[in-house]
Amino acid sequence: MSTDPLSSRGRRARALGLAAALVGCGGGAADGSAAALAAARGAVVVPWTTQPVAARAALAAADPLVQVVLVEELLLAHPADQPAICGALPPAGPAAERCARHEARPHLVGLVGGAAPRGVWPPAPGTRRDWAVVDGGCGADLRCAATERDAAAAAGEVDRARALCVAGWPAGTDRQECLFQAADGVIEAHGLARVRDAMDLCAEAGPLVGPCAAHVVDGVVPEGSAAGALAAAATLRQLFPAPAGDRYADLLWALWTWAQLEDAPRPTAAGHAALPPAAQPHLRQALAFAMLAEEPPEGLVLDERAAELRALIASEQPRARAPRHRTPVPPADAWPVLWPQPPASAAEAALPLRWVGHGGSRTEGESLEDDALIVILEAAARLPQPPPAAFFLAGLAPERAPRVRWTAARLLGVLAPAARPSAATEADPLVRGRLGP
Fold this sequence. Notes:
Blueprint: H1 16-25, H2 34-44, H3 52-61, H4 64-77, H5 82-87, H6 94-101, H7 142-155, H8 158-168, H9 173-190, H10 195-202, H11 209-219, H12 226-239, H13 244-262, H14 280-292, H15 302-315, H16 346-349, E1 353-356, E2 360-363, H17 368-381, H18 389-393, H19 402-415, H20 429-432
Antiparallel strand pairs: 1-2
Helix pairs in contact: 1-4, 4-6, 7-8, 7-9, 8-9, 9-10, 9-11, 10-11, 11-13, 12-13, 13-14, 14-17, 15-17, 17-19
């Protein structure tokens, strides 16, 4: 269901055997010698963490076939450095193709000094187990550890999968990424039946716990009717106490509703009234994305699109208006976050949250009219080409509800901060915290 290449439904294309074959026969060196390959390793792999600038330059200058071997070994030893490894390569060639086949890990981009990835992520599930002491059988052999970790995760042997990560990678982001991938493997093989085990692995993943938990939830999103999603959401709430279970269930509904609309030939709110109340805000958000993808951004008028959204919901019929524009909407995992960190006030921290994609959130309006305005604003801000600032300034009109005005101010602060009105004349403290000086 998910189009996220990182999700448990994404392809695992590590191609570990390629590097082993090249290394084993010595065929990766330009002159066919194992000595040349060893020299390249000494200039790239060995000093990768101690002399990163020189190592990246040496990787970029290496023979194209040698680059394939080096990239494979670097991705295995330093999975958290995937953006830097692939970014050091020429844009075309076998090594760049290898990187393109590798599972891109966007949650690692910009992860510096152990800080959490930017976004509003699911809370940590907490652990329920004392991990068993298990010998994974690989020690520090990373190739063995990665292969056996995947096998253990597929078999549901979570204690062994964790042990392989702990023994194979030093404490830090690389080990946390290994645990993340183990959780992905558990949920891919076993789904909702082992969601607790997958979340236990996520809980060990340090600052990656939030993105890891989001992937686990993505992995249990059912296909088909709302009944399956309702059962899965109930299971998440039962297994994980609040607030974690509530946020996991809300994310599940966000992903499920978007998948339903992705498969529809035209934007439609069919079944909106029959959906559980927890799912309805997400169908409205998904419908707003689908609608705006058919409109040129420079011609958008906030009140017109919000009124059309309300009419679509009331009729539950497919949108009759012919598309005037085609904007490819990126998959949910790639939607911009556009969420403040940290909250500017206690009132902001108390706002109810609904998921928008994997790492973004929005607040929910107190009425259908208000929420229609909010989802249109949020969808417009996440289009590849957002509309001009005037579109968002319309959401700041004094007659709007506070949550609508706060949403418009927040989005302007990200997209066009210079266009924000001055906070000096704003009476509402919730909105004032997101306006200009």
